Automatic annotation (TrEMBL):
Species per Swiss-Prot/TrEMBL record: Sinanaerobacter chloroacetimidivorans
The UniProt record lists the keyword Transmembrane: yes
InterPro entries assigned: SAF
Lineage: Bacteria, Bacillati, Bacillota, Clostridia, Peptostreptococcales
Residue ranges crossing the lipid bilayer per the database entry: 12-31
Protein known as: SAF domain-containing protein
Entry keywords, A to Z: Membrane, Transmembrane, Transmembrane helix
Gene3D superfamilies: Antifreeze-like/N-acetylneuraminic acid synthase C-terminal domain (3.90.1210.10)
Occurrences of domain SAF (ranges): 44-97
């Protein structure tokens, strides 16, 4: 009887030892297969194909990669949804990590449901404006004395006297306001996105006050 109990205890110890070994091996496999990567690597978003400057970024152009944490660039994107509807501000090679500064938001559109269209602010209406105004900028419009704000609008086009688009010089297409040092022409007038009612209000206030307009760019 005692011998049977002794054998039973030895079998239990052996089984416990086997379980410990299996658990240790499982932990080792887990560490090598996942744990080490989880602590030293991170899932980030990379380009799955070449993305050209100005190209709308879609889900098919992006992929998730597990990369060493010490190799990640500043601001690298970790969630594809952050790039929904964005446009490439530069060429992004296949396999490259993608960060926010490489893209800009494509929220430049005409809301036809609101009755928006494109309206011209003639040169003779404008008293003062920056030479750095560009298509896609948001501007605030005031009477020339700056005392009355008339509205806030998106710039559809910036034109010269021959109706040609004035844009930033090559290499400055996505520069902030302070770095738009050169342009492709001299600004004559600006065209804005507005409703007919908003444009009529601008027209009427100019006629009733005799003042021209102060155009102020909103900080980015």
């Amino acid at each position: 009887m005692q011998q049977n109990n002794r054998i039973s205890m030895e079998m239990k110890k052996a089984m416990a030892g086997i379980i410990v070994i299996i658990a240790a091996l499982s932990l080792l496999f887990y560490w090598e297969g996942y744990g080490r990567e989880h602590t030293k690597y991170e899932q980030v978003i990379c380009a799955s194909a070449e993305i050209q400057k100005g190209q709308t970024i879609t889900d098919e152009l992006l992929t998730e990669k597990s990369l060493p944490k010490d190799s990640l660039i500043n601001g690298v994107i970790k969630d594809k949804s952050e790039l929904d509807g964005t446009v490439a501000a530069q060429y992004i090679p296949a396999g490259a990590q993608v960060c926010r500064k490489m893209t800009y938001t494509n929220d430049f559109y005409i809301d036809t449901d609101r009755g928006e269209s494109i309206y011209k602010l003639p040169a003779e209406w404008i008293d003062s404006r920056s030479a750095a105004v560009r298509r896609g900028d948001t501007i605030e419009i005031y009477l020339a004395d700056g005392k009355q704000k008339l509205g806030e609008y998106m710039v559809a086009y910036v034109r010269d006297a021959q109706e040609r688009e004035v844009s930033s010089a090559a290499g400055q297409e996505y520069a902030d306001m302070l770095n738009r040092t050169d342009a492709t022409g001299v600004i004559d007038h600006i065209e804005i996105i507005a409703t007919q009612e908003e444009y009529e209000a601008l027209y009427q206030v100019i006629g009733s006050t005799g003042q021209r307009l102060l155009i102020v760019q909103k900080a980015e």
